[in-house]
Q: What sequence folds into this?
């Protein structure tokens, strides 16, 4: 297949390099277009009103001075001229489960590709240190060989999380829904003065809700989690109450 690889950890990050090496061994044709530095938690941001620099580092390999979403846009609208079969974002250094998908540049790059009509997968590994990227890369290769790319539909993303364990310790794959997590001590204040204070985001490790059927439960039990993400942002169940409010206050059509 002809595959675009991107991420939010940067073009030289070990996750994307391990994935590229494994997919090349499998015979896939790769184009790597990723941020020139780490852009974790960039979410779906675009770089507006500033010049974005693209540098060709090698054949079919480019760094971009913008966000992960910038990478998907420039890849699919400028750099790549041949048809792309699949876009893979990752392997991210750390899980993208629960509400993390809203912050994640890894997921956002895949989302943007899907909104541009491409099949897209986001893949992450469940650890912030000592990650077994080669294990995750081998599982991604195996899943592609088994045809998972056919199930990745435009305007949706397959969000895959891999436990940080040995290849033969993984118990299987579960189809999951997005769970929930809480961060305690989410900010760390480093300096305070009379006019304000300085802080950093990134507190203690998250506490995961391992409710049955969630991504967090699957990972905690040694399974790969696959969560299909969709992007219908409208809450249809809220319509009746809102319509009643509009009607009761005679707001459906105002008299001029």
A:
């Amino acid at each position: 297949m002809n595959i675009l690889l991107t991420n939010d950890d940067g073009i030289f990050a070990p996750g994307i390099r391990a994935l590229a090496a494994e997919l090349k061994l499998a015979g896939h044709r790769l184009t790597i277009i990723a941020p020139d530095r780490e852009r974790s938690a960039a979410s779906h941001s675009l770089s507006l009103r500033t010049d974005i620099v693209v540098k060709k580092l090698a054949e079919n390999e480019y760094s971009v001075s913008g966000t992960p979403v910038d990478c998907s846009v420039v890849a699919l609208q400028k750099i790549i001229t041949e048809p792309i079969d699949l876009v893979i974002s990752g392997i991210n250094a750390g899980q993208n489960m629960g509400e993390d998908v809203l912050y994640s540049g890894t997921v956002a790059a895949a989302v943007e590709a899907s909104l541009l009509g491409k099949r897209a997968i986001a893949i992450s590994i469940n650890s912030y240190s000592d990650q077994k990227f080669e294990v995750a890369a081998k599982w991604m290769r195996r899943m592609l060989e088994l045809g998972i790319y056919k199930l990745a539909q435009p305007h949706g993303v397959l969000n895959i999380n891999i436990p940080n364990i040995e290849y033969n310790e993984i118990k299987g794959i579960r189809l999951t829904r997005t769970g929930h997590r809480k961060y305690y001590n989410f900010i760390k204040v480093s300096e305070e003065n009379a006019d304000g204070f300085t802080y950093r985001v990134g507190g203690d490790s998250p506490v995961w809700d391992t409710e049955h059927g969630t991504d967090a439960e699957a990972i905690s039990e040694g399974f790969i989690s696959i969560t299909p993400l969709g992007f219908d942002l409208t809450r249809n169940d809220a319509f009746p109450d809102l319509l009643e409010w509009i009607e009761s206050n005679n707001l459906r059509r105002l008299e001029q």
Observations:
- The chain has seven helices and 13 strands.
- Helices lie at 14-25, 68-79, 100-103, 105-115, 133-145, 215-220, 239-248.
- The longest helix spans residues 133-145.
- The radius of gyration is 20 Å.
